[in-house]
Amino acid sequence: MRYNKLGRTDLEVSEVSFGTAPLGDMFGSADEDQAIASVHHALDAGINFFDSSPYYGGGLAEERLGAALAGRREDVLIGTKAGRYGNEDFDFSPRKLRESIHTSLKLLRTDYMDVLQLHDIEFVPLSPVFEDSYAELVKLKDEGLCRYIGMTGYPMHTLTRAVTETDLDVILSYAHYTLLNTELATALKPVCDERGVGVINAAAVGLGLLTPGGVKPHIPATDDVKAAAARARQWAADNGQDISFLANQFSLQRSGCPTTVIGTTKVHHLDSAIRAATEPIDTDVLDAVLALTADVHDVSWQSGLPENNG
Question: For 146-161, how does the pLDDT look when each residue is reduced to its tens digit (9 = 90+)?
Answer without folding.
Answer: 999 999 999 999 999 9
